[in-house]
Amino acid sequence: MATPQKKSIKNYIPRIILLIVVLAAGIYAYQSYKYGQGHESTDNAQIETYSVPVVPRVGGYVNTVNMKDFEQVKKGQLLVDIDDQEQQLALAEMEAVYQQLLTDVENAKANIKNTKMTISAAETNLKATALRKDKARRDSERDAKLLADNAITRRQAEDSQSGLDVLNAQYDGQKQDIAATKSRLDILGSNLHKAEAALAVQRAKIDQQRLKLTYSKIYATENGKIGRKSVEPGQYIQPGQTLATIVQDSLYWVVANFKETQISRLAIGQQAVIKLDAFPDLELTGKIIDFSDATGAKYALLPPDNASGNFVKVTQRIPVKIAIDHVEKYRDKLRAGMSLEVEVKLK
Predict the structure, then answer these.
(1) Which one, of 250, 217, 239, 192, lies nearest residue 76 by Cα?
(2) 80-98 average pLDDT score
(3) CB neighbours of residue 183 within 10 Å
(4) Is the pLDDT assigned to residue 88 strictly greater than 70?
(5) What predicted TM-score, i.e. pTM, was given to this entire model?
(6) Of these four, 4, 10, 117, 122, which has the most CB atoms within 10 Å of its CB?
(7) Residues contacting residue 347 through CB under 8 Å, at least 6 positions apart
(8) Are 221 and 74 in contact, with CB atoms under 8 Å apart?
């Protein structure tokens, strides 16, 4: 049979246990409060890096694909070769048209040169006609005086005057011909400018076509790893179609989405502790380097409209960029999009 002393001890055991539990809860609450006063944390965070899409600038059938899923590639490496036979034929046609237009330009220049030579010859003939006209004028004046003295017949005087009239008419006609030929020079000059302009346009088309031919080979624009490949040989691709994505594996950072009520306690330069969900025992460090100028909701496909009648206030989150210390040591473990937890030690 239990003694009164033992009964008394048994009665106090539940109270002692309750006191210990309450004390432990109080200590935990105090420590949590103290920790919360010196830290801000969030589990809405992920690893980020740069990714470059592999897109063609011209369409066509794919000849070869020189990349595999998750393969390491280097900048300048040939990734995709597009069939360019049609482009080559189009270039040959453009070059033939260019030669034809070049001939038109040469013909226009030759016409101008011939016209100038014709004008020069006509001006020489005009000078000769002017000399003959002056001689005929003097002969006519002399014959007129001789006729007045009855030294020659009237018929001889009339022949001299008729010869002068003919030469005057020839002189005037030659002057008009020269003026008309010179006016043709403006037309021929316009034709030359038009032919040269057409030649320049065709040259630009050829340069553009040659540039398009260089687009038939797609090269890696950055060092990194192929993310997801969606192209195979024989496939027809369109300009702007995403064929793959190159994920840079040389630079990683963290984007942590803190609540707007936490932002007032954060500042650039504060130290952060990063814990990856994939590696619970791995603890990284970093520091805040920048804040987004807009909430995450503003980047959504359909941003919320707070002016609507059904407005419900929701705490927004601000993306915060955190640089990872000694990131080169963890490249084999870091992957873009990995989830993690971030704790920032407040100053």
Answers:
(1) 217
(2) 95
(3) 9
(4) yes
(5) 0.68
(6) 122
(7) 267, 270
(8) no
Q: Take residue 199 and report the two structure tokens written for it.
A: 């030649």
Q: Which tokens go with 285?
A: 């460090």
> How far is Cα 11 from Cα 297, in angstroms, rounded to an integer?
58
User: Which segment of 5-9, 20-24, 164-168, 208-212 scores lowest on mean pLDDT?
Assistant: 5-9
Best CA proximity match to 219, nearest among 78, 81, 83? 78
Q: What is the mean pLDDT of residues 220-224?
A: 92
Q: How confident is the model at residue 17 (pLDDT cuts 50, 70, 90)?
A: confident
What tokens appear for 178 in the block? 């020269």
Are 324 and 284 spatial neighbours (Cβ–Cβ below 8 Å)? yes
Query: Do 104 and 198 touch, CB atoms closer than 8 A?
Result: yes
Domains of the chain by range and CATH?
54-83+218-236 (2.40.50.100), 85-214 (1.10.287), 252-347 (2.40.30.170)
Instruction: Give the strands of the sheet with 236-237, arranged side by side.
Output: 217-219, 78-82, 60-65, 236-237
Q: How many CB atoms lie within 10 A of CB 240?
A: 10
239's torsion region: left (phi>0), alpha (psi -120 to 50) or beta? beta
CB 143 within 8 A of CB 152: yes
Flag whether pLDDT at 11 surpasses 80: no
Tokens for 185, please give them.
Answer: 């020079």
- The token pair at 15 is 């109270």
Q: What is the DSSP string of 16-75?
A: HHHHHHHHHHHHHHHHHHHHHHHEEEEEEEEEE--EEEE--SS-EEEEEE---TT-EE-T
74/66 Cα distance (integer angstroms) = 12
Confidence of residue 101 (pLDDT cuts 50, 70, 90): very high
Report the pLDDT value the prediction gives residue 45, as an integer from 0 to 100: 96
| Residue 38 CB contacts under 8 Å (≥ 6 apart), including other chains | 345, 346
